[in-house]
Amino acid sequence: MVCFISFLLADVFLLICVAFYTLLERKVLGYIQLRKGPNKVGIMGLPQPLADAVKLFTKEQAKPTLINQWPYVFAPIISLFLSLSIWSIYPSSSVHLYFSFGVLFFLCLSSLSVYGTLVAGWASNSKYALLGALRAVAQTISYEVSMVLVLLSGVFLVGSFNFVDYVFFQETFWVFFIAYPISLVWVVTTIAETNRAPFDFAEGESELVSGFNVEYSSGGFALIFMAEYASILIMSMISSILFFGGSSMLLLSMDMFLILKTFLVAFFFLWVRGSLPRLRYDLLMDLTWKSYLPFSLGFLFFILCLLLLLGF
């Protein structure tokens, strides 16, 4: 019961973080483009996410006549549920659920999350939504291959599937310093996995009229984007643990450091969106299959050979 309450509270705080992360994104993009972000609602626009939430969940829900009713309704809920479930791997000394095989749990749920996008596009019964969903599926499956290989390199290096062991393994140094090239591959892969600019082909407003969510409005639209922003924060947290985690202090006392590193990685997502134009789709696929896949495999073999030479 205590674990369930802890898990529930963690999800509530994640949703609050998602709300204010959207405000941070709009502010950052505003200043990057030499304009102001939201600044009219309350003090410095801070209540803006709450106003947006009220607007989205109280406006009229559009009901297209040709949709597949139940898949259309449940697809956003499934996407958000899967994103919130991944948060249970957060390493903490508080009473909370965490898994000895957290890496495998993360891979399973992140692989399932693509089904929410696919079902949303298919159930909308619109060619634009279906095209956006199919592009998202192809993109996610492609980049998952290099993501798994990068995680396997970390698993062989640390010798564990538990994210808590990654924290203690990096007590004296960060893995980032010995795996700098592969960490850059990981960062680009996480941006592509979360369908963020410059890899936001699932939406592709200029050619797909908002993509897979074109038939959604009101609460369904809000749930889809809550799932997307929750995935960004989760990927930022996992990136921090994999490459920047580690402290000689207890997990409880290093939580603030982990939150700070997670915030910096999440800020990098916004910086990239405000700086880079959208890539061409064929270049996106060439990047993962012709560059990241062989490089990730080569680095994995390098780690294995290094461990064999050192006698581990």
TrEMBL record:
<dbReference type="InterPro" id="IPR018086">
    <property type="entry name" value="NADH_UbQ_OxRdtase_su1_CS"/>
</dbReference>
<dbReference type="Pfam" id="PF00146">
    <property type="entry name" value="NADHdh"/>
</dbReference>
<protein>
    <recommendedName>
        <fullName>NADH-ubiquinone oxidoreductase chain 1</fullName>
        <ecNumber>7.1.1.2</ecNumber>
    </recommendedName>
</protein>
<dbReference type="InterPro" id="IPR001694">
    <property type="entry name" value="NADH_UbQ_OxRdtase_su1/FPO"/>
</dbReference>
<feature type="transmembrane region" description="Helical">
    <location>
        <begin position="70"/>
        <end position="90"/>
    </location>
</feature>
<keyword id="KW-0812">Transmembrane</keyword>
<feature type="transmembrane region" description="Helical">
    <location>
        <begin position="6"/>
        <end position="24"/>
    </location>
</feature>
<comment type="similarity">
    <text>Belongs to the complex I subunit 1 family.</text>
</comment>
<keyword id="KW-0520">NAD</keyword>
<feature type="transmembrane region" description="Helical">
    <location>
        <begin position="292"/>
        <end position="311"/>
    </location>
</feature>
<feature type="transmembrane region" description="Helical">
    <location>
        <begin position="250"/>
        <end position="272"/>
    </location>
</feature>
<dbReference type="GO" id="GO:0003954">
    <property type="term" value="F:NADH dehydrogenase activity"/>
</dbReference>
<dbReference type="GO" id="GO:0005743">
    <property type="term" value="C:mitochondrial inner membrane"/>
</dbReference>
<keyword id="KW-0472">Membrane</keyword>
<feature type="transmembrane region" description="Helical">
    <location>
        <begin position="141"/>
        <end position="161"/>
    </location>
</feature>
<feature type="transmembrane region" description="Helical">
    <location>
        <begin position="221"/>
        <end position="244"/>
    </location>
</feature>
<feature type="transmembrane region" description="Helical">
    <location>
        <begin position="96"/>
        <end position="120"/>
    </location>
</feature>
<dbReference type="GO" id="GO:0008137">
    <property type="term" value="F:NADH dehydrogenase (ubiquinone) activity"/>
</dbReference>
<keyword id="KW-1133">Transmembrane helix</keyword>
<keyword id="KW-0496">Mitochondrion</keyword>
<keyword id="KW-0830">Ubiquinone</keyword>
<dbReference type="GO" id="GO:0009060">
    <property type="term" value="P:aerobic respiration"/>
</dbReference>
<feature type="transmembrane region" description="Helical">
    <location>
        <begin position="173"/>
        <end position="192"/>
    </location>
</feature>
